């Protein structure tokens, strides 16, 4: 309709101009007046409808401007005002549709039907009729209709519409498949696990509809400011007429007073911000939530699954001295293949990540909750808790020392026995997410003043995680009621955010001004109290959501101040007779266009918060494989740093010589290649003049310590001074171990943050 009105008013203006050219002034006036009357009638109908709802719209000023122009026989002015109003409506429709682009794409992609097996026959059925347990076929290019489990060996899925990830991902048989993703590969079969109404995409659609229909408090505030202009406009117009005696001046004031910059720029910016979030895999339920995000100053985090990965992973493999950590990991993982326990699977995953070839276990016996034993090749291997393994092996002092260290570091472990002797242990921890420290830094840059971690875990574990992540306060051993009380107390310091996993943290998410569910499914998100759902299981997207919200609010405020300031200036110029009505109409439209297109900037990332260019998938995979390949060498450095002094001089010399040879053959070329080839590429993707200076300095320290060890290994004495020499060598090894551990952690975090997936 708006585009039709624009076409009619434009045609009327041009037709009148043509008639005027042929000296048909009377006919031209009739054509111009007719188009103006058409807009006046539409405005009058809208005003009456609003008055019946006890609302007063700013369209009243536009109606008065057209009516005044017609009463003063300013037909051309009335026609130009009508054209500008119709153009403004068409522009509003276009910009709103563009701002809602990502939201509309999500709605348009909602699956309507599914291919279901009935025996061996395929039938196309409405998606609402799919029930859990149904076997479905998803053809190439189709949207997955419901949540389910993949039955085929592998599927290639395009998850960009949900998560913003640009590259297709591969899923293995048995993995969960979410509704709303697109099959980017060959057709595959899946089993439905949720009905359509409870699936991920259905929840997303409900959230998107709510976001499109909501109005933020900032928008409502803008409406009130715009309405305040009505008496001000009438006052200025009346004063201009009174002091000049010229009613045309009053008309000019009315023409430039329509507050389109205020009533259009703010909604467009808010919708654009919500759409930008959706593009990045962040679903914001409504405009009010987006505005609250921008005001947030206090942030609460859950620990498990939020700051940490939420699953155990292998931290280290410790050897009692008889076998290397790599050999122990291979034996333990070979045996662990026989157990479905989460700890056993973590051991297997760690071994496969290092490329170890595992053997098939035999004669396996598992004691639930304790451990398992079996034969791996010619070796009898046990893997399990300390009590389980210690009961079948002679006591050794090494075990007591390791147990003390585990208590100090708040880690758990499974002990390994080989051929009836305590051989070592695998240490586990719920690792801090790689992106957590950076995410917290970005949140502080976005305006968060205080970050508090809330957890029911033990104080020692919570303190360690909080210290590593960089939070301001850790509150541990909390009950759900304690978490609620903490969030309510935090409200005294500003708008509060609570980030949780969207499943177990519903009360806390509801208590905060804005609840953010991290990595939650759409069905869960729709039923939980979270106002924001981050579909990607990455904590740095929370920081991005706050950044987008802050930028959106800033752009909206800029539009209000700049647009209304220009409108008020134009009113004063019109009142003084410096801006005729015809020119004023054009000026007002120019202001509208400039402010509305400024609001559309909220669709972009902005130059200050533009994300660093990502690495492609192949680069990231290669870097991770390189690091995994060096893990055995790092384990060997750590073992030497811990116990080389305890070896006999001849054994220590042989061990050190072998270690130095590996450092020079494997580690040093790897670090040199990183310095000369990889780091220049990474620097192009990061901000700053020399963003990798600190890591390059670490490279030089690795080179120095390796060279020092090489020289020391060549000069180990065989006389009585060997003990003092080995102590000095151990100190160098400990420094190298520390530097390598820190350096590899920094690189893994960097690669993770630059990963495009």
Structural write-up:
- The chain is of the alpha+beta class.
- The protein has 4 domains: 209 residues, no CATH class; 89 residues, Distorted Sandwich (Calcium-transporting ATPase, cytoplasmic transduction domain A); 235 residues, Calcium-transporting ATPase, cytoplasmic domain N (3-Layer(aba) Sandwich); 137 residues.
- The protein is built from 27 helices and 22 strands.
- Helix 21 links the parallel strand 21 and strand 22.
- Helix 3 packs antiparallel against helix 4 and helix 8 packs antiparallel against helix 10.
- The two termini are 42 Å apart.
- Keywords: ATP-binding, Cell membrane, Membrane, Metal-binding, Nucleotide-binding, Translocase, Transmembrane, Transmembrane helix.
- Its EC number is 7.2.2.12.
- It is found in: Cell membrane; Membrane.
- It catalyses: Zn(2+)(in) + ATP + H2O = Zn(2+)(out) + ADP + phosphate + H(+).
């Amino acid at each position: 309709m708006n585009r039709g009105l624009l076409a009619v008013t434009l045609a009327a203006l041009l037709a009148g101009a043509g008639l005027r050219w042929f000296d048909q002034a009377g006919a031209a006036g009739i054509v111009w007046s007719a188009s103006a009357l058409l807009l006046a009638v539409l405005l009058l109908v809208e005003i009456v409808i609003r008055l019946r709802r006890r609302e007063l719209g700013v369209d009243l000023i536009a109606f008065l401007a057209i009516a005044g122009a017609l009463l003063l026989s300013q037909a051309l002015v009335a026609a130009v005002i009508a054209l500008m109003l119709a153009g403004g409506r068409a522009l509003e429709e276009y910009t709103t549709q563009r701002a809602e682009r990502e939201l509309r794409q999500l709605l348009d992609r909602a699956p309507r039907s599914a291919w279901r097996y009935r025996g061996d026959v395929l039938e196309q059925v409405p998606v609402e009729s799919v029930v859990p347990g149904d076997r479905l076929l998803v053809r190439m290019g189709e949207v997955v209709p419901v949540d389910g489990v993949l039955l085929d060996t592998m599927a290639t899925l395009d998850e960009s519409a949900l998560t913003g990830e640009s590259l297709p991902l591969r899923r293995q048989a048995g993995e969960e498949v979410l509704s709303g993703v697109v099959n980017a590969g060959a057709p595959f079969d899946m089993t439905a696990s949720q009905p359509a109404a409870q699936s991920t995409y259905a929840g997303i659609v409900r959230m998107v509809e709510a976001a499109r229909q909501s109005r933020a408090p900032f928008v409502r505030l803008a409406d009130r400011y715009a309405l305040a202009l009505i008496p001000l406009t009438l006052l200025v117009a009346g004063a201009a007429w009174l002091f000049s005696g010229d009613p045309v001046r009053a008309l000019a004031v009315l023409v430039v007073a329509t507050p389109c910059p205020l009533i259009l720029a703010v909604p467009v910016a808010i919708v654009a911000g919500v759409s930008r979030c959706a593009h990045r895999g962040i679903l914001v339920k409504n405009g009010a939530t987006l505005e609250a995000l921008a005001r947030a100053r206090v942030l609460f985090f859950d620990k498990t699954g939020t700051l940490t990965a939420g699953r155990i992973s292998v931290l280290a493999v410790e050897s009692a001295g008889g076998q290397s950590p790599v050999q122990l990991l291979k034996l333990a993982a070979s045996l662990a293949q026989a157990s479905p326990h989460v700890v056993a699977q973590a051991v297997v995953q760690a071994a496969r990540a290092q490329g170890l070839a595992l053997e098939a276990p035999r004669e396996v016996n598992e004691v639930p909750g304790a451990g398992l034993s079996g034969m791996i090749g010619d070796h009898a291997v046990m893997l399990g808790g300390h009590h389980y393994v210690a009961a079948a092996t002679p006591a050794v002092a090494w075990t007591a020392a390791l147990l003390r260290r585990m208590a100090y570091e708040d880690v758990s472990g499974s002990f390994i026995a080989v051929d009836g002797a305590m051989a070592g242990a695998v240490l586990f921890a719920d690792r801090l997410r790689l992106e957590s420290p950076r995410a917290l830094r970005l949140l502080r840059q976005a305006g968060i003043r205080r970050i508090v971690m809330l957890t029911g875990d033990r104080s020692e574990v919570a303190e360690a995680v909080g210290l590593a992540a960089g939070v301001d306060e850790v509150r541990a051993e909390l009950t759900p009621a304690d978490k609620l009380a903490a969030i309510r107390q935090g409200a005294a310091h500003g708008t509060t955010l609570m980030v949780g996993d969207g499943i177990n943290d519903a009360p806390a998410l509801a208590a905060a001004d804005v609840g953010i569910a991290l990595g939650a499914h759409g069905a869960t998100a729709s039923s939980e109290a979270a106002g924001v759902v981050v579909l990607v299981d990455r904590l740095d997207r929370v920081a991005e959501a706050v950044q987008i919200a802050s930028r959106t609010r800033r752009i909206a405020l800029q539009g209000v101040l700049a647009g209304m300031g220009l409108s008020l200036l134009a009113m004063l110029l019109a009142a003084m007779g410096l801006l005729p009505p015809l020119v004023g109409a054009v000026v007002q439209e120019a202001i509208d266009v400039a402010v509305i297109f400024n609001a559309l900037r909220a669709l972009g990332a902005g130059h200050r918060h533009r994300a660093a260019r990502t690495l492609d998938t192949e680069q990231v995979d290669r870097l991770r494989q390189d690091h995994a390949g060096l893990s055995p060498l790092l384990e060997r450095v750590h073992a030497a740093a811990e116990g080389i002094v305890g070896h006999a001089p001849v054994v220590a010399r042989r061990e050190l010589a072998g270690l130095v040879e590996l450092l020079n053959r494997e580690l040093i070329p790897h670090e040199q290649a990183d310095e000369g080839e990889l780091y220049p590429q990474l620097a192009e993707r990061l901000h700053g003049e020399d963003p990798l200076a600190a890591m390059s300095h670490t490279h030089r320290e690795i080179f120095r310590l390796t060279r020092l060890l090489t020289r020391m290994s060549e000069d180990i004495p065989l006389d009585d001074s060997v003990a003092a020499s080995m102590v000095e060598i151990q100190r160098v090894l400990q420094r190298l171990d520390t530097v390598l551990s820190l350096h590899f952690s920094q690189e893994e975090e960097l690669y993770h943050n630059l990963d495009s997936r």
